[in-house]
Amino acid sequence: MLPVNQAESIILNLVQPLDSDRDVEIVDLLTASGRTLATPITSKLDFPHWDNSAMDGYAVRFADVKDCSPENPISLKIVEEIPAGYEPHLKIEPGQTARIFTGACMPLGADTVVMQEVTQRKGETVLILEAPKFREFVRYRGSFYQADTTLLKPGISLGVAEIAVLAALQCLEITVYRRPRVGILSTGNELVEPHQPLKPGQLVDSNQYALAVAVAQMGAEAIGIGIVPDERKILQETIAKAIGCTDFLLSTGGVSVGDYDYVEEILTELGAEIHIHSVAIKPGKPLTVAKLADSDCVYFGLPGNPVSALVSFWRFVQPALKKLAGVEKEAWKPEFVTVRTLQDLHSNGKRETYLWGKLNLGSDGYEFQLARGSHSSGNLINLAGSTGLAVVPINETLISAGELVQVLKIS
Ligand code: AMP
Ligand code: MG
Questions:
Q1: Are residues 211 and 314 in the same domain?
Q2: What separation in Å is there between the alpha carbon of 260 and the centre of ligand 2?
Q3: 226 in ligand 1 pocket by Cβ < 6 Å?
Q4: 235 and 225 in contact (C-beta within 8 Å)?
Q5: Are 313 and 387 part of one and the same domain?
Q6: Is the pLDDT of residue 293 over 90?
């Protein structure tokens, strides 16, 4: 049994990221959400593009107003009104001002904006009642970023803020990595599809659905291969066929030590090198990770128990899928947070143990609330609603209520 960290690095070393020249496509900005940027994005212009006002108020020369106060207001002549989107025509001379609104261009001659709340309008003049700070409330051209700087680096995931930046930069066609192709199959004679009637001894294949959604949530393409019976020949043919059209192939079940657990034998017959057989993690001990010969496809034989399959996915497949997808290295690692546990967390100490529950905001920051009910790897039900997996390290048997615990965030 490999320690979890070792298994993680073996897996990451097996994965080659998609190629930044070959494995890319151009997508419309509005459909780019969740995709991974493949080329650097550079601005052509300074931002702000023009000196502009951050307030509704009056554009002034600082020298004119620097000594004013409520007792000693200064009167300035309003020579122009500058709404947003309007190009000013006049230069502000000593004793003059322009009425200006948020986002509007600063007129020449003015260097500071006085907000309207500290002014008093008198027809064509205005009284300035408080001295502003020099250059206050002006967003100067290029003060946020300058032309020709790289604003978004390859490898970032495009979310709401990144899409907004791309829109601001007038980038409407975005080069992103293609979606990784992830094949998903379930092994087991006992399995039926959710729409099929259940006969005695049968079980619904929930893993296929869980993994399809988990893969899709990561911006990858889930290729459903369906249920494959525990029959060596059919399983071998299915795997051999799927390898050719997938970057990762995920199977569940058939990787334990039972008489019908054929996956490793079949992979060996297909010329694959098995890099991982089992990991010291609970749930999820049986885990087969193999690299297929003459192919870039990486095979993940996940355990069949539904919770084990998902824990293995979150802990091992997700970081690997991020690396494959071209995501920057800093973002591969699973997201752990350190919080206080509200309940005692038990383990037998033999394996790194993952217990599921909720991350709740308490009066003293986030807390971990252990899910009620059985923490059996076959009990999917209380995994629903869970947002984190609390980790009891190997060789530890208890993290007591009130102590700090590392929690892997899950979605
Ligand atoms: P296995 O790893 O094939 O021995 O399966 C371990 C346990 O997980 C057994 O109880 C299986 O019935 C169950 N199981 C296997 N595959 C699935 C699946 N796709 N969906 C739900 N349960 C499964
Ligand atoms: Mg099985």
A1: yes
A2: 7
A3: no
A4: no
A5: no
A6: no
Backbone phi and psi for residue 217, each to the nearest 5 degrees, phi listed first: -60, -25
Q: How many domains does the chain have?
A: 4
For the cut 80, the answer to whether the pLDDT of residue 384 exceeds it is: yes
Testing ligand 1's pocket by substitution, the residue of 184, 185, 191, 193 carrying the most ligand atoms inside 8 A of its CB is 191
Same domain, 185 and 173: no
Q: Which of 203, 277, 287 to mutate to test the pocket of ligand 1 (most atoms within 8 A of CB)?
A: 203
Q: Which domain range does residue 309 map to? A: 4-18+179-331
Query: Both 108 and 248 in a single domain?
Result: no
Question: CB-hemisphere CA count at 13 Å for 328?
Answer: 12
> Which pLDDT belongs to residue 180?
98
Q: Can you give the pTM of this predicted structure?
A: 0.92
- CB-based contacts of 63-68 (< 8 A; 24+ apart in sequence): 63/94, 64/94, 64/95, 64/97, 65/112, 65/114, 65/128, 65/131, 65/132, 66/131, 66/134, 67/131, 68/128, 68/129, 68/130, 68/131
Q: Which residue's CA is the closest to the ligand 1 atom numbered 6?
A: 304
At residue 257 the predicted structure's pLDDT band, cuts being 50, 70 and 90, is: confident
Ligand 1 in reach of 304 Cβ (< 6 A): yes
Distance (angstroms) between ligand 1 centre and the Cα of 207 equals: 8
